[in-house]
Amino acid sequence: PVASQVSKYFVVDVDTDTTGEISSFSSAFSATSDPDLDNNSSEATAQVNAVSDLNLSKQASAVEVLAGHEVTYTLTIINNGPSDATSVQVSDNLPAGVKLLSAFASQGNCGPAIPVACSLGVIPAGASAVVTATVRILPSTTGQVVNDASVVAGPLDPNEANNSDSVPISV
Q1: What is the rounded distance in angstroms from the CA atom of residue 49 to the CA atom of residue 30?
Q2: Is 54 in a helix, a strand, or coil?
Q3: Which long-range contacts does 165-169 make (Cβ < 8 Å, 24+ apart)?
């Protein structure tokens, strides 16, 4: 009789906290005599990388403000997972025409300069962190000022389109 070949495919669900190399070992046996036992087993490996989808949204305490008054920007960073986000860094590029009064983070710390740089550390999957920056609009500022912010972290972010946000205010 002619030798037959059978293929089997398996789908494996990997826990969200698993990273690194994973291996699968398989072997085949038969009730009939096999003249070559060296080809009856196989091993496959795959690299599993952590992935975290960060989302940054930004709001201002006012959409219109008079020169000389204060505005507070609130940045909310959400980790949509599935893995923890590590080494999370937020950059808040405050616009010209403002003076930074304070910058605080719900975790980690923020520097006292413009752009505001915040090191938030680890944001677990499903969790969030908040950064607030309060500014005073300089007396000479008029028109529209736009504040841009962004977030980066490890590991891989499959959707970088939601890692930045802008908010305009009218002076």
Answers
A1: 37
A2: strand
A3: 165/56, 165/57, 165/58, 165/75, 166/58, 167/58, 167/59, 167/60, 167/73, 168/63, 168/144, 169/60, 169/62, 169/63, 169/64, 169/65, 169/71, 169/144, 169/145
Q: How many angstroms separate the CA atoms of 111 and 139, rounded?
A: 25
Specify the pTM: 0.78
Task: Give the position of tokens 């006012």.
Answer: 62
Give residue 27's pLDDT: 74
Helix%, strand%, coil% for the chain, nearest 5: 5, 55, 40
**Distance (Å, whole) CA 88 – CA 79:** 10
Digit-coded pLDDT (tens) for 152-165: 998 889 999 999 99
